[in-house]
Fold this sequence. Notes:
Strand content: 15-25%
Helix content: 40-55%
Shape: globular
CATH topology of the largest domain: 2-enoyl-CoA Hydratase, Chain A, domain 1
Amino acid sequence: xxxxxxxxxxxxxxxxxxxxxxxxxxxxxxxxxxxxxxxxxxxxxxxxxxxxxxxxxxxxxxxxxxxxxxxxxxxxxxxxxxxxxxxxxxxxxxxxxxxxxxxxxxxxxxxxxxxxxxxxxxxxxxxxxxxxxxxxxxxxxxxxxxxxxxxxxxxxxxxxxxxxxxxxxxxxxxxxxxxxxxxxxxxxxxxxxxxxxxxxxxxxxxxxxxxxxxxxxxxxxxxxxxxxxxxxxxxxxxxxxxxxxxxxxxxxx
Length: 253
């Protein structure tokens, strides 16, 4: 298996596990990562995912050795590159990044919902240095999270930015000391899991799907998402727990 899957209470911890190749994406890793996301989505007891890389790098992108050898199937039908960049899903995923996240590795990060990074992490789309383009979402998502000119500079020069710069401009949610990214990501996951899981998923859906909608369409989407939350058992539990002055007991239904 190229992706290790571990359950920690309500958290699915997924680890890209090809450290000898700097976790570069090959066919097996793409299939395994999609499978991990399938498990996260299908298990009602899992509310959030955390994705990390084994070893000193988060992910170096596509496995160019596999590509050169004619084994260039680095995508899945539903998930696209690495089984994740175009994957339709409902539950949040936090990227815990230590070391480089470059090319497709950065595009994996951009596919996640939140990012925690160690201080020596770096992020880049160096594809132009190899007569390629960042075709797995980098050129689309990067200008949405960075100022346009900085995204343009990264795309045209192929040069990376460090974790401090990424944090300053909002790519990284939480910047921590080297080696602390996973612990911080798990703490962030616990903060999110303290909330009603259906409300969390509905909120994520409105932000993701509503980003490019005009206001009327976005409000309609928000209203639809709210309707599902209002009909849940957890919607009754929230006010009741507040009145009884106790922590809520979320069921995810």
